[in-house]
Amino acid sequence: MTKAPKAEAFEKSLETLEELVRELEAGDKGLDESLALFEKGVTLAKDLSKRLEDVKTTVESLSKEGGKLVKKPFAADAD
What we know:
Layout: H1 10-26, H2 31-62, E1 64-65, E2 68-69
Antiparallel strand pairs: 1-2
């Protein structure tokens, strides 16, 4: 079985997705090309969502309290 190529950086994948969205929003592509761009975008969006969920899970599992690992939700806006 062949190994899949190493996934590109999250930020690069996000930029690619944003570019696909801009191309689709421009509305100057034909139906077949638009469908291909849409399919690529959906695949990228699913991959990015999974990667974010994986990171969230890792952050939660690495949170420590009293020397023990405990699951703590990630708070992006901690005051």
